[in-house]
Amino acid sequence: MTAELIQRLSKIVGPRFVSNAAEELYLYSMDPGTMPQAYPDAVALPKTAEEVQQIVRLAGELKVPVVPMGAGLVLSGLTRALKGGIILDMKRMNRIIKVNPLSRYAVVEGGVAQGMLQAYLKKYHPTLKHSMPDAPPIATMAGNMCIHGSGHLSVLGGSHSDMLTGMEVVLPTCEIIRTGSCSVSPDWFGRSPLPDLSGLFLGWAGTTGIVTKLGIKLFPNYAFNDMLIFVCEDADTMPDVIFRLTGVQVAEDMTPWMTPKPDWAKGFLHINIAFGAHSKKELTFKRNLLQASVRHYIDRKTAGFLPLPPTQKNRFLKVPSPDLARFADLRKGGGFEYVGAMMAIEHFPEAYRAGLEIAEKFQVSYSLGARIIGAGHAMMFFFAYAFNRADDEDVRRASEALDATNRAVLDMGGIPWKAERPAQVQIMEKMDPDTFALMTRIRATLDPNHIMNPGNWEK
Amino acid sequence: MKPVVFDPDLCAGCATIDCLMKCQYVDFKDIDDARTEKLNINEGRDSRVLHECLTCYACQEYCPDHNNPFYLLVERQEEKGLLPAPRPILEEQLRMMAPRGRIERKMVSAPVVDMCAFPMLTGCVRGSLFENASTIVGTDIFCNIMWLHFAKNSVIRERVPKAIDNIMAFYLKDANTNELVCFHDECYGTYTSVAKAYGISVPFKPIHLFDYINRRLDVLADRIKPLNQKIAYQRPCSNRLSPETDQTLDEIFKKIGVERVPRKYDRQNALCCGGVPRAQQRDELADELVEKNLTDMLSTGAAYCVFNCPFCMATLGMEVAERGLMPILVSDLVQLALGE
């Protein structure tokens, strides 16, 4: 079977872009998180949507699973081939197809990396930017979009899936379809006013189709940028603080962080707030609005903004932020994972305390934080645990901490984000049964051969 | 705990109340108003000055009797729990600047230059100006004067003697000198003015950077290439504790051929750089101070904006550069004149 598979894949994408070499299958069997390895039978790198289509047709014929993969950085093992089959590495589909500067959107292929679009915009459209996740720049646009990612413009524009204007998708039954305005018009301006089919592919962990193109919203890239760091001692005040700060609607990004290192930060709750403007005057006006919104706390001396000289702000204005990457290597050995939980902002204090308790119980190195989504409409609260992959005991502790965190998150009304297989099971246990039944029917309709990333979203 | 050296009778007999009447940040209706507020402070009652004070140190310089009005004011702020900055800001700063206990003995020789807690500036100690100099640096020898901005005399009392002990035990005890060159005004102010007022003994001889540079320029006189430039000087708050050194700075500028242009906001009328009010969450005031400083400097036709305080430079440096002036430290300017 494998020999035939490799031979036929080679015919589709060319022999240079297919492999079943042991060392390559090893690399594709895992991601940097804690999930155990799962080996694919083959890896293929298509260049076009038509090649993707042919591979899916072949997989359907041979009843071989297909697992779409961007950069493989999801950390929760969603691109592992749980039932073997083909990993479809999308990195060769890396064309930036067009940028519409007036309507502020870009259309890119499914393998375009965040850093590629960032560099492209910087060079050709310096007045525009897109929302970057705090992931390595090689992380792909499509992968991040499909997991409902978020980034440095998420207060302004919501989660990354809210910034999606349309998609081209190869279905498990081999049709190439489009969602959003591009299904009717040459323009990729948005998903309304049509029935929104994009949702069939967002949050499904690659079980319903393969995204080959997508349109995304772009935003003004300001000439003047600034940031503030709010700090307080009382977690119970954080929901109100977030409510107030987002209420003035000038921030582009807000990221609370709570960490035991450096020593001076332990026990304090911080919020980095980034904002930009077309002029210094406008920038000052926005800063004043943000500060005025929490004057209530400042006047009581219970909270305030760190006095940062301009020269110290630059590191906080870097996009993507290097800080999480620094923490990721805290324990050395290349292990890092986090539970990102989508939840309402009123659960902030509960989530914070749960994170501290779990870190203490399992003796793991932790960093807690969040990214605010929209005008305080939700947050992605993260419980990050660094571990040393070469230390089995360290990995075990981190895995147990993650499992406990997932349970705590669900108990407090949150939902683990980009849930790994065990967390999916926990979510499904909690999910309304009729909703899960609908999910199953939709999936069966789209993927009658059950070839798309099997093992995910299944009881 | 030794009280701050302060003579209430001397203060009561003051005819001018310069400490408050000359204040650039708190307004008084008339001298009687100022006298009332001063009396309130002296006698431990609440005063609006305790709430409105920018903590710029200037009243230390304005007081004709050298009666430590500012140190007393900080004492009263702390007694009453009137924090100029929010509590979490203060607490984080206290932790950031706490002695680490990681100091290690190091052989040093004269001149020993105290870089306080700021290793990023040790690179400034170079060339013929600082020939054969040793530097010492770290939070274990932090001068701790910053707590005057945060109503924390208690921290000064607790940490300054330890810093002094560390300087002696780890560096100067076995060195060939009893002199410590203070790169920052803050350190010199601590080991002279603050120590004296708080009853802290200082076993070494603090040397102000300006005095050190001035002496070195006499030695290096034949190497000086006059810069022939106009400079605007941003006098820092901590120089208010050693105003006599401002004259030394004039001598330095004369020796290297620069003209310290007359500014509205220089000398006794120097204006805060805007850094401290940001910690006090008074950003709009800070913006105003920055703008006043910049407008004032630009109106003089100066080519350089010269700093001696690294915090002032961090606060104003970028703005100054954006507006066309070259920000530079005094020591770097001197090295420029020495062709280095």
Average predicted local confidence, pLDDT of chain A: 94
Largest interface: A-B, 24 and 24 residues
Strand order of the largest sheet of chain B: 2-1-3-4
N- and C-termini, Cα separation of chain A: 28 Å
Could you list the spans of chain B in which at least 5 consecutive residues all have pLDDT below 50? none
- Number-wise, the strands of chain A total 19
- What global shape of chain B is seen? globular
Discrete helix count of chain B: 15
For the largest beta-sheet of chain B, the strand count, sense and barrel status come to: 4 strands, parallel
DSSP strand count of chain B = 8
Q: What Rg of chain A, in angstroms, do the CA atoms define?
A: 22 Å
SSE string of chain B: HHHHHHHEEHEHEHEHEHHEHEH
Shape of chain A: globular
Strand order of the main beta sheet of chain A, please? 15-12-14-13-17-18-16-19
**Helix/strand/pairing class of chain B, anyone?**
alpha/beta
Task: Report the sheet with the most strands of chain A, covering strand number, pairing sense and barrel closure.
Answer: 8 strands, antiparallel
CATH architect. name of the largest domain in chain B: 3-Layer(aba) Sandwich
User: What's the average pLDDT of chain B?
Assistant: 97
What gyration radius of chain B follows from the Cα positions, in whole Å?
20 Å
Task: Name the CATH architecture of the largest domain in chain A.
Answer: 3-Layer(aba) Sandwich
